[in-house]
Design a protein that fits this description.
By secondary structure, the protein is an alpha/beta fold. Helix content is about 45%, strand content about 15%. The chain is built from 14 helices and 11 strands. It is globular and about 60 Å long. It starts with 10 loop residues before the first strand and ends with a helix. The structure holds flavin mononucleotide. Flavin mononucleotide binds near residues 26, 30, 50 and 51.
Length: about 325
């Protein structure tokens, strides 16, 4: 199911052209280079790096800098920055340019207490004036590089102000916005508010990307058609399922429902994924980080709980390969 047919251009964001309508969401601690490369291979329109702290970048923190590294196989790719001040964000954007991002994304949706308590992430939705100043500073700094913003529907049900914030972003030169149709208070609880994504789309001239609870072709089509958004972004639906992009793209193309790959194929992709993680991060860190990915790959497989327990303790690639072999040899599909 690994295919990436060159198709007609589905969407332009300034000078960027995308040939599919499904992008990989930024996923801190999950969508690293290995996962982003895999998802692009399966037809994600673009990928976004894990969010990097403007403060960390301006202090020369190596970890923050590493988060901005983009390989050729994960492009088009954006660098996502979070911060609470125009000055720090401007400086961070300037440094981010050294990594040649295809675009720079500003995080206005992160709900994590440590981030919001500093006035960054979703907290910016409570302060549209500051959000506007941050956007303006970054846009001015990066010249022709498109700047995008990812936000939630609002802080809470009483203050759903995505439309206002998105308008401010557009006025300050943002090239596209992504709206995750949940408030900060909702975190990941249902429902996703399609109405507000639709309202943002109707209020803006720039492209709007819808996000929230897309796990397959049908949920992708529902989000697209019910909101009128230009593109969709998939987060958790790609965890342990990078092929979800080919499934969604096939469905949006002509209604084809591609089945979940056979267990043997899932295990093959898992091993490829983990090999990549180890290549980029070294075996010691790579295998430890691979444990959670491996657990996602076995979700829904018969005996998954048993395998998850084993996978949570793997110490080497060979151990993982042995478990994968055992899983495949246990079944006929
Ligand atoms: C583990 C995890 C990490 C995330 N990290 C980021 C991030 O770094 N930046 C960001 O804007 N959103 C982040 N998000 C939010 C996702 O990008 C996305 O908006 C959210 O998961 C909703 O989409 P979904 O229903 O397709 O998962 C993260 C979500 C998860 C589950």
């Amino acid at each position: 199911m690994l295919f990436r047919e060159r198709q007609v251009i589905c969407l332009r964001i300034k000078s960027l052209e995308f040939d599919t309508m499904t992008a990989l969401a930024p996923l801190a601690g999950v969508a690293d280079t290995a996962m982003r490369e895999l998802c692009i291979g399966y037809g994600a329109a673009f990928s976004v790096c894990e969010m990097a702290s403007a403060k960390g970048i301006s202090l020369g923190d190596k970890k923050s800098a590493n988060l901005m590294t983009i390989t050729k196989n994960e492009r088009p790719a954006g660098i996502q920055l979070f911060g609470n001040s125009p000055c720090a964000m401007r400086l961070a954007a300037q440094k981010a340019l050294q990594y040649s991002p295809d675009f720079i994304d500003i995080n206005m949706g992160c709900p994590v207490p440590k981030v919001v308590s500093s006035g960054a992430g979703a907290s910016l939705m409570k302060n549209p004036a500051l959000a506007g100043s941050i956007v303006k500073a970054v846009v001015q700094e990066v010249g022709d590089v498109p700047v995008t913003v990812k936000m939630r529907s609002g802080w809470n049900d009483e203050t759903k102000n995505a439309v206002l914030l998105a308008r401010i972003c557009q006025e300050n030169g943002v090239a596209a916005v992504t709206v995750h149709g949940r408030t900060r208070e909702q975190m990941f609880a249902l429902p996703v508010d399609y109405g507000i994504i639709r309202e943002v789309k109707q209020s803006l001239d720039i492209p709007v990307i819808g996000n929230g609870e897309v796990f397959d072709g049908k949920s992708a089509a529902k989000l697209l058609y019910e909101t009128g958004c230009d593109m969709i972004m998939v987060g958790r639906g790609a965890m342990g399922r990078p092929w979800v992009f080919s499934q969604i793209n096939a469905y949006l193309h002509d209604g084809t429902v591609l089945p979940e790959p056979a267990v043997s194929e899932r295990m093959r992709v898992m091993l490829r994924h983990v090999k990549k993680i180890c290549e980029y991060k070294g075996d010691f860190i790579g295998i430890r980080e691979a444990r959670k990915h491996a657990a996602w790959y076995v979700k829904g497989i018969r005996g998954a709980a048993f395998y998850r327990a084993k996978l949570s303790q793997i110490e080497s690639f060979d151990e993982l390969a042995e478990i994968a072999f055992h899983i495949v040899s246990e079944r006929s599909d």
